[in-house]
Amino acid sequence: MKFIYNQLLFIIIALASCSNVSQPTDPIPEYETFKIQSKKVGEERIINVWTPPNYKNDKDSLAVMYMADGGIKEDFPHIANTLAKLIKDKKIKPLILVGIENTERRRDLTGFTEIEKDKEIAAVVGGSEKFRAFINDELFPEINKRYRTTNEKSIIGESASGLFVMETFFLTPQMFDHYIAFDPSLWWNNHYLVRTAKEHLSKFPSNEKRVWFAGSNAKDISPFTKELANILKKENKANLKWKFSDEPKEKHTIIFRATKEKAIIWTLNKTE
C-alpha cells in the first residue's frame, strides 16, 4: 500500500508542477490572432500577438517576447497586461508579445525522458525538439513578415513552460537573447538539464545571453533551481548574465504572478 501511495503522490506532484498554474482571470487586451499550419509539429497552431499602444502610429521596429501557454484562456492576457503597465510606467521599452496557444501542452514542453514515472503525466511527452523547430523555422519568419521586428528576442514561461525555456537555453542558446523561467520543472528526466549544465555551458556561444529564473518552495523543484544557481556561479561565464530569485515563501501556484515584474524589468533592461 505504501508503494502505491508513493506512486500516486509522485503523479500528483508532477501534474501540479507541469501544469499551467496561473489561475485568476485577467482582462483581455486588444490583440491580433492568426493560424499557422506547422509542418514541424504536424498541426495547425493559433498565434496571439499583442503590440504596445503606439505601435500602429510609430515606425520603430521592436523586440519580441515569445511565450508558450499563450492562449487567451492561458497566460497571454496576464503577460500582455503586465507589459503594458511596465511600458506605461517607463520601466521597460516597448516590445511585441507573441503567444502560442497550447494543443498538447505536456507533449510540446517536455523533452525526452528515460524515467517511466515521467511518462505517466500525459499520453504523449518528449515533443520539445519539434516544438522548438516550429518556433525557430516557422513562427519566427512569420512574425518577422507580419510585424516590424528587431533581432532581439526573449522567451518567458512557468512550470513545464519554464522547463522548455531552460531546455532551450541550454540546448539551443542562440535562439533567444533573453530567457525567463518561473519554477521550471527541472526534475524532468532525473534533472537532466542540471546534471548536464556544465557540459552545455562549455559549448556556450560567444555573444551575451541573459537568463532569469525563480524557485518557489516546491519540494520537487527547489533543490534543482538552487543547484543550478550554484553551477552558474561556479562556471562564471563572462558572456552570461544570470539572476536566480530564490522565493521560499512563494508557492508554485503563485510565484509567476509574484515575481514577473522584477523578472521582466531585470532581464529586458539588461541591468547588472
Automatic annotation (TrEMBL):
<dbReference type="InterPro" id="IPR050583">
    <property type="entry name" value="Mycobacterial_A85_antigen"/>
</dbReference>
<feature type="signal peptide">
    <location>
        <begin position="1"/>
        <end position="22"/>
    </location>
</feature>
<protein>
    <submittedName>
        <fullName>Esterase</fullName>
    </submittedName>
</protein>
<keyword id="KW-0732">Signal</keyword>
<dbReference type="Pfam" id="PF00756">
    <property type="entry name" value="Esterase"/>
</dbReference>
<dbReference type="InterPro" id="IPR029058">
    <property type="entry name" value="AB_hydrolase_fold"/>
</dbReference>
<dbReference type="InterPro" id="IPR000801">
    <property type="entry name" value="Esterase-like"/>
</dbReference>
